Amino acid sequence: MTGRWPRLMRTAFLLTGERHAAEDLVQSTLERVYVAWRRVGSADDPEAYVRRVMINAHARRHRRRLKEFLAPRDDAGLVREVADAGDRMAQADDRDALLEALAQLPARQREAVVLRYWEDLTETQTAEAMGCSVGTVKSNAAKGIAKLRALPGLAETVTHGGRK
User: Fold this and answer.
1) SS3 (DSSP) at 3
2) Where is the RNA polymerase sigma factor 70 region 4 type domain (predicted)?
3) Inter-axis angle of helices 5-16 and 46-64, to 10 degrees?
4) Interior CA angle at 87 toward 85 and 91, to 5°?
């Protein structure tokens, strides 16, 4: 659990858009996984099993408030990824712009984009985590990326920031 916490928190934060909601999501996921550890431990890919539990828990919460899209408020408690090089302030601005843009996507598109491009899962792994077909993943990811590209603030960050 300790070794996987930062990655689980990052994924949960990207799904929920709020630090405290992400912590709650990871904690409830780990509670469910602990109770079912015999099944989890004997699974072919325990990490994928845990990720699937988290996606399902997030989907259940999201169904209750179907039209509400959460905007990131505070990610100060997350473990930061170390960027390769460049201007640190510009990277922070880019990250904020990306998080705001992700918050504008519908839940399924957000899940597909986060799992495919941030978590770097294959289409098959993403489909398993989301509980849908590969075609649905492709469709949701393509629509999500198209919406992200259409957002003026994000497009300006990418083109003016020197990262085309």
Assistant:
1) coil
2) 96-148
3) 30
4) 90
Q: How far apart are the first and last CA of the chain?
A: 37
Q: d(Cα 104, Cα 148) in Å, to the nearest integer?
A: 9
Instruction: Please return the burial class of 162, using the count of CB atoms within 10 Å of its CB with bins 0-12, 13-18 and 19+.
Output: exposed
Handedness of CA 141, 162, 159, 155 (dihedral sign): positive
Average pLDDT over residues 120-147: 91
- Does the pLDDT of residue 136 top 90, yes or no? yes
Q: CATH second-level architecture of 5-160?
A: Up-down Bundle (1.20)
Tokens linked to 142: 């393509």
Tell me the longest C-alpha to C-alpha distance in the chain: 51
What mean pLDDT value characterizes the chain? 76
Question: Two tokens at 141?
Answer: 């990811």
Q: Is 77 helix (H, G, I), strand (E, B) or coil?
A: coil
- 73-to-14, 90, 94, 131 alpha-carbon distances in Å: 12, 19, 16, 28
pTM of the model: 0.55
DSSP 114: I
